[in-house]
Design brief:
single chain, alpha+beta, Alpha-Beta Plaits, Rossmann fold, Jelly Rolls, 4 domains, eight-stranded mixed sheet, five-stranded antiparallel sheet, 21% strand, serine protease
Length: 728
């Protein structure tokens, strides 16, 4: 039991903090807060009645995956934690903070802004025959979506009908709810409205994101199993890692690999509010592991000259900011991975004083101090976070990063790689810090392999409208769209150091489009009929579903389209965004630029062109001008047999081409082969007595020798030809 208690140490400390201060969860997501704190359990060989046993502790079971060995539950007291520690099959308890949904504020001018109308009109494209999966907080739980005629019941799975957006024609008559939540803002429905406006023929599926990363992976898997062609989400979980693909990114990648499902996600709305530093010990001569900082192991924020362990951080009034610390170590929430071998902690105070880091001090604000391992003893997730709520007046805070255990300079996995960390400040606006923001703010599965992360540009900045009349003469991105660029994911899914560079966001889409219920009425530019009576949906939460809607149109036009080919087409044809924080060419704010659907269609039309009509695109066809659906290529030279000059040669003039002639240098139209050895009989027949000749020994012998040599060469050449044919 003592060992179990030690294993629960990190989770319990976080749970107690949040159970005692439940309001600290408000504003991240309202999901299930009233039901208690959501935690994640790791299970080892759970019994068949695992759900019953967990329920007997007083916890509410949310989700169980016996095969992968995990469960999520809701609880509200220390008593339940004590009961859980008595269950042998429960090996680890982790606090699971609720997700952040990437909403900014709330026409639908997206199709026009993204230049989709030309192909919609000329090619009659509307997404018919395709399915899209949406993941967000909820779909049909608010009165903005639900009325007395809406079915199924709130929070229930089933075919949604009779909702307000369906009655007004802003959603299809049937939406498949694989899972919905009883709390949330119904941002999923707003995203679906944007998609339906671009691709009204597509079927829409929805699954709530859930309360933690594991429930999010279950959402992805469920949509994947339902056979959707594309998934789009607007979700960030606070504990998602940036130096290792987390389980959400791995689930999205697996869905694409197994089912060919493209995956889009919102890049984020945190502007440049991030820091990235190599850890610099304020006093390298002293290394202690005290429960509260001594001041010796704080990170020195100054890059040169002197020392400063506390960075001033200013938050305007009425803002809630989530400060998330992540460092370059793997985590142990991925099956087969190992945990962190470095333990860092995060502190926020009201004074730049070591004394203020002690809980109970009048100037103490918050800390993130979960349990992680040390060098050679990996454990835990390399992440800490705190929540800052400024209230009615602006606040000044001080942020400190404390090194507690493990290597201080190089990481244990590679002596050539320094220990570094990133901090994301999400949820706030007009933030300022003593030391300039210098880090990326694209976070979590936004960095995942083959995931398409989408930046935001206001619709009126499109060349189809009036980009020169606003912020700058050029196309401007949204000021809040997240900063990305090249980022190194350092660890593979097993926790081994194996760095790969990812560049995000890949491209931009538009936001600020109309929907029926979510967003702002006056945050858009007063042009093209605005301000009208419909709210405008802003944020990369809106840009991502608009991009996914464009994917549906192009997928309908080109059924073999994949996420990778879509990205290739967009990167080759995007409209460069150069205003404000963006720059010419590929940049770290809008990637390759704003989607140009018409140009992307033309690019794909060339890529998928099928001149000979054999069902194989010219770019993939080994004989693009001659029909050859079987793509036969006997000699393996990537030129189809039907158009390969070598294969069409008839050296002996017997009307049988060399590629199929069993004796290509001796005429044998009948191709007789008595012993079925692949060599024609005429190449194996015994020679007849040569006519003429004096019978002189020398002359006769010389004649026979030349004849036998000729036959030998002929047979040998035929043998080589047959061998090459079999090898090919």
């Amino acid at each position: 039991m003592q060992q179990k208690a030690a294993e629960f140490e990190a989770g319990i400390s976080e749970l107690q903090r949040n159970i005692n201060e439940p309001l600290s969860l408000k504003g991240i997501a309202t999901q299930d807060n009233a039901s208690g704190i959501v935690v994640e359990l790791l299970l080892n060989n759970p019994p068949e009645n695992v759900a019953e046993l967990l329920g007997l502790t007083g916890a509410r079971v949310r989700h169980i995956n016996v095969q992968e060995g995990w469960a999520t539950i809701s609880l509200g007291s220390q008593h339940i934690i004590d009961k859980l520690s008595e269950l042998d099959f429960v090996t680890q308890l982790n606090y699971a903070p609720p997700p952040i949904f990437r909403a900014g504020s709330v026409t639908s001018r997206a199709a026009r802004a993204l230049r989709a109308n030309p192909i919609i009109n000329s090619q009659t494209l509307d997404g018919t025959g395709l399915k899209i999966g949406v993941i967000s907080d909820s779909f049909a739980q608010t009165t903005s979506v639900r009325d007395s005629n809406t079915t199924p019941a709130k929070g229930s799975a089933g075919n949604l009908s009779g909702s307000r957006p369906q009655d007004s024609g802003d959603l299809p008559a049937v939406v498949t709810l694989l899972n919905d939540s009883v709390s949330g803002t119904d941002e999923g429905a707003a995203m679906a409205e944007l998609i339906h406006d671009i691709a009204p023929g597509a079927a829409i599926y929805f699954h709530a994101a859930g309360g933690n990363r594991r429930e999010m992976t279950a959402a992805i898997n469920a949509l994947c199993d339902a056979g959707v062609d594309v998934i789009v989400d607007d979700v960030l979980f606070l504990f998602e890692k940036v130096y290792q693909d987390d389980i959400v990114a791995l689930a999205a990648k697996n869905c694409e690999d197994q089912r060919g499902t493209a995956y889009f996600t919102a890049a984020g709305n945190d502007a440049n509010f991030g820091h990235r530093y190599v850890y610099k010990d304020i006093n390298a001569a002293v290394d202690d592991e005290a429960s509260t900082p001594s001041g010796n192991d704080l990170h020195n924020w100054r890059t040169s000259g002197g020392s400063d362990g506390f960075m001033r951080f200013d938050v305007p009034a009425n803002q809630k900011v989530y400060v998330i610390l992540n460092w370059n170590q793997p985590g142990d929430n991925i099956p087969g991975s190992v945990g962190s071998q470095v333990d860092l902690d995060l502190y926020v105070t009201r004074l730049d004083s070591v004394d203020a880091t002690v809980p109970g001090n009048s100037n103490f604000v918050a800390r993130g101090a979960q349990f992680q391992g040390r060098t050679g003893v990996p454990s835990g997730e390399p992440v800490e976070y705190v929540v800052l709520d400024s209230g009615a007046t602006a606040k000044t805070y001080y942020i400190a990063v404390e090194h507690k255990k493990g290597n201080k300079t190089a990481i244990p996995q590679s002596s050539a790689v320094p220990l570094e960390f990133k901090i994301l400040y999400t949820g706030g606006r007009s933030l300022s810090a003593e030391y300039s923001f210098n880090g990326p703010t694209t976070w979590g599965h936004v960095l995942g392999e083959d995931i398409l992360s989408v930046a935001a540009v206001p619709w009126w900045e499109s060349l189809e409208f009036e980009p020169g009349n606003f912020t700058t003469p050029n196309i401007d991105p949204e000021p809040f769209t997240a900063v990305g660029g090249e980022q190194t994911v350092q660890f593979n899914s097993a926790g081994a150091y194996m760095p790969v560079v990812r560049t995000v966001p890949q491209f931009a889409s538009v936001d600020g489009s109309n929907n029926t219920f979510l967003g702002s009425f006056s945050s858009t530019a007063p042009i093209d009929g605005e301000w009208d009576s419909f709210p405008n949906f802003f944020g990369t939460s809106a840009a991502a579903p608009n991009a996914a809607g464009i994917y549906l149109l192009l997928k309908q036009a080109f059924p073999d389209l994949t996420g990778a080919l879509f990205l290739e087409a967009v990167e080759a044809t995007a409209i460069d965004v150069t205003g404000s924080a963006a720059s010419s060419g590929f940049d770290d704010v809008t990637g390759s630029g704003l989607i140009d659907t018409d140009a992307a269609y033309q690019y794909l039309a060339n890529a998928f062109a099928d001149t000979d009509g054999d069902g194989i695109a010219d770019t993939l066809d080994n004989c693009p001008d001659d029909r050859n659906a079987d793509q036969a290529d006997t000699d393996g030279d990537n030129i189809g047999d039907v158009c390969d000059p070598e294969n069409n040669t008839d050296s002996d003039g017997d009307s049988v081409t060399n590629d199929i002639d069993n004796c290509p240098n001796v005429a044998n139209t009948d191709q007789a082969d008595a012993n079925n050895n692949g060599v024609g009989d005429v190449c194996e027949s015994a020679p007849s007595t040569p006519s003429g000749g004096s019978g002189g020994g020398g002359g006769g012998g010389s004649g026979w020798g030349l004849l036998l040599l000729g036959l030998s060469l002929s047979i040998w050449q035929a043998y080589l030809t047959r061998s090459e044919r079999k090898t090919a």
